Amino acid sequence: MNLLAFDTSTEVLSIAVQCGMAPPLLHEGPGAALASASLIPTIQGLLDRAGLRLEHLDAIVFGRGPGSFTGLRTACSVAQGLAFGAGKPVLPVDTLLAVAEEARVAAGFERVIAVIDARMDEVYSAAYAYENGRWRQEGDFALGPPESVDVPDGWASAGNAFAAYGSRLPAGAPHAVALPTAAALLRLAPEMLSAGLAVPAAQALPLYIRDKVAQTTAERAAIRASQPLRS
Predict the structure, then answer these.
(1) Closest CA to 163 of 182, 143, 185, 146
(2) What CATH number matches the domain at 2-94+180-203, 3.40.50.1100, 2.60.40.740, 3.30.420.40, 3.40.50.720?
(3) Which of 22, 128, 165, 183 is most buried, most CB within 10 Å of its CB?
(4) pTM surpassing 0.85?
């Protein structure tokens, strides 16, 4: 298949182009607010290197969230625009699923609690089990303080939250640093496309777990007051 995949949900921008059976072309760079300026030019450069045009693609795959609000809006708007222009479907993929897939390939984990930094002293998390060659999500997405994450016996955790909240996340279980990479999206895409999960361009929508983007001044003051003083 010919696929374009990208994720802008974290601090790392990840893009990949798959052209048939050739090894995918990969790019990583600064994400978050910086992704909006470099995403489209980098996509075009990778397509040119692969000898592809947008109309040659079978689908456009993108990380739909949860993650950075700015990053998710960037991913959805670019996926919509490119797909509309080329008349191609889009494949939205949960970013936490991509984290689990990256941890499977990098560390061999097959029961993963995927955890990524949600800012505002919280993390996004979800549980995934890999069985018979496919992932199954167990339960719903969660958003809460790092202490709320539970890693059952026999499971591992993966994500980018340990850099910010390592001392507040469960200790003792295996852990891998993992991001929702475009390479992981490419690996997940064939089965998801076969399952009919591609949608029209207009349905390239973000997955928001948190309703609020920012805290009020009073909410920030209350959080500071509740935290212990540090010497």
Answers:
(1) 146
(2) 3.30.420.40
(3) 128
(4) yes
